[in-house]
Amino acid sequence: MGPIEGDVLELGGGHCWLSGQLSKREAVNSVAALELSRSQLERHAPPVLEYVDAKLDKMTFFTGDFLNLGQRPETGFD
């Protein structure tokens, strides 16, 4: 695996711990977290992101099925 940099898409973000950690990397421009469960993103992710001191200005959250990526944002990912 190469370096983690650029624009990152996390599929199955859950409570977004990994997305939060990646958002703190200098080489990461943005992190998009895709999660099937809206309650994971609305209830469980915020305290986790606060705990890991995530850079929320670099993060975007989407509810959807990663088996149907037609719902993804109109952007590219590295």
Gap between N and C termini: 12 Å
Tell me the total number of β-strands: 3
Helix content: 25-40%
Describe the main β-sheet briefly: 3 strands, parallel
The shape, in one word, is globular
- Strand line-up of the largest beta sheet: 1-2-3
Q: Uncertain regions: pLDDT < 50 for 5+ in a row? A: none
Order of helices and strands: EHEHE
Beta fraction? 15-25%
Mean pLDDT: 88
Structural Rg:
12 Å
Count of runs of 4 or more consecutive helical residues:
2
Sheet/helix structural class? alpha/beta
What does the model show?
The chain has 78 residues and is an alpha/beta fold. It is 27% helix and 24% strand. It has helices at 17-23, 38-51, and strands spanning 6-11, 28-35, 59-63. Helix 1 links the parallel strand 1 (6-11) and strand 2 (28-35). The protein is globular and about 30 Å long. The two termini are 12 Å apart.
Descriptive labels:
three-stranded parallel β-sheet, 27% helix, single chain, alpha/beta, 2 helices, 78 residues
Helix and strand arrangement:
Elements: E1 6-11, H1 17-23, E2 28-35, H2 38-51, E3 59-63
In short:
This protein has 78 residues and is an alpha/beta fold.
